[in-house]
Amino acid sequence: KLNIPSFSDVYSDCFSIGAAINQHTIESSKQLLTKHFNSITAENDMKPENLQPEENKFTFEKADQFVAFAEEHKMKMRGHTLVWHNQTPDWMFTTPDGSVAKRDLLLDRMQTHISTVVGRYKGRIHSWDVVNEVIDDSENLFLRKSNYLDIVGEDFIEKSFRFAHEADPKALLFYNDYNESHPQKRDKIYKLVKSLLKKDVPLHGIGMQAHWNLTSPTLDNIRAAIEKYASLGLQIQLTELDVSVFDTTDRRTDLKEPTTEMVALQEERYEQLFALLREYRDVISCVTFWGVADDYTWLDNFPVRGRKNWPLLFDDNQLPKQAFHKITSFK
Ligand SMILES: Oc1ccccc1CN[C@@H]1C=C[C@@H](O)[C@H](O)[C@H]1O
Fold first, then answer.
1. Catalytic site includes residue 133
2. Is 330 in a helix, a strand, or coil?
3. How far does residue 330's CA lie from ligand 1's centre (Å)?
4. Are the beta carbons of 95 and 101 closer than 8 angstroms?
5. What tens digit of pLDDT does each residue of 10-63 get?
6. Cβ(179) to ligand 1 under 6 A?
7. Which H/E stretch holds residue 237?
8. Are 58 and 52 in contact (CB under 8 A)?
9. Residue 78 in contact with ligand 1 by CB distance below 6 A
10. Is the whole model's pTM more than 0.90, yes or no?
């Protein structure tokens, strides 16, 4: 049996290696997690709808379990996420009589959510995705239209960071987004973060979700994005890395396993990606995968429900792929 090195040990002088987990995978992938990873993120269980499903009714059992698991296994914990237009309960934006909340009410609720959640794990969560995905994907819009933007206005973003910093001054606070390497969106993310830093907003890093595929984004665009974000003097983390075997327009549902060509392309892709990431080890502090092994990935249901994908470094038998061996034998 091949001697399999620890992924996070091999990368110990580059950056932390993380994985998104849930109630199922924290058990089913426990061996892989404790051997190969030194950071974890709750895939869904620390999103607003799962921590405060009803106003002033907080449900911390699962988050407590994950934080304890991280501490038991000397792993860092990433908090994901405090302010996001998705997976946030409707009550947040609604008055008790059912009308749309006004600015002050929503700001109070944001402060309550953030200070209660971040305060509970003060000193135990290394970094937070304070704000997730507020930049719009379209050409002509800067900020994505959302309840937060409509009700509070643009300053909901800086307020979120200030609330989080008040609750845990030591936590590293991140702005997190996807399609982060597309030049046009990259420049808008840069503009937003630069404007926040100009206002002395406590913001320490940019989270590149890195939901990539076999061809996109190009290495040049990834490099340009890392360079641009690094020029702000912030640390960078890849927060949700996976390499889909389908490109964004491919809706085929016929495959029961990846084609040999997909496997070869993914191997090459991971090798190139990690060579690039190692080159920027001075600004990249953590690379987190959005899952552990192919036996569980959110991509089995996005963008096509029930369509199997094979995006990670461990296969659906939880064995390391050739891609894993390639990126852990560079020394
Ligand atoms: O790749 C995308 C395409 C369209 C919308 C959102 C995304 C990524 N959005 C991410 C994906 C999965 C969720 O579990 C994460 O919390 C979220 O940040």
1. yes
2. coil
3. 31
4. yes
5. 999 999 999 999 999 999 999 999 999 999 999 999 999 999 999 999 999 999
6. no
7. strand 235-244
8. yes
9. no
10. yes
Give Cα separations from 213 to 39, 63, 244, 270, 311 (angstroms).
Answer: 23, 30, 4, 10, 8
Task: Kindly state if the Cβ of 297 falls inside 6 Å of ligand 1.
Answer: no
Q: Is the CB of 240 under 6 A from ligand 1?
A: yes
Contacts of 56 (CB under 8 A, 6+ apart): 112
Of 49, 71, 72, 133, which is the active-site residue?
A: 133
pLDDT at 208: 99
**CA 221: distance to chain centroid?**
19
Per-residue model confidence (pLDDT) at position 331: 85
Between the alpha carbon of residue 11 and those of residues 33, 168, 212, the distances in Å are 15, 28, 21
Q: Which of 240, 257, 267, 268 is catalytic?
A: 240
Report the distance separating Cα 32 and Cα 150, nearest Å: 43
- Per-residue pLDDT of 72-131, as tens digits, reads 999 999 999 999 999 999 999 999 999 999 999 999 999 999 999 999 999 999 999 999
* Cα-to-centroid distance, 131 and ligand 1 (Å): 13
| Residue whose CA lies nearest to ligand 1 atom number 4 | 178
Checking if the pLDDT of 2 tops 90, the result is no
- Contacts of residue 30, defined as CB under 8 A and 6 or more positions apart, other chains included, come to none
Q: Identify the band that residue 241 occupies on the pLDDT scale cut at 50, 70 and 90.
A: very high
Q: Is 43 near ligand 1, meaning CB less than 6 Å away?
A: yes
Q: Does the annotation count 240 as an active-site position?
A: yes
ipTM of predicted complex: 0.93
Max CA-CA distance within the chain?
A: 64
Ligand 1 pocket, mutate which of 129, 133, 146 (most atoms under 8 A from CB): 133
Backbone angles phi, psi at 287, to 5 degrees: -120, 110
In the reported structure, the alpha carbon of residue 329 is separated from the centroid of ligand 1 by a whole-number distance in angstroms of 31
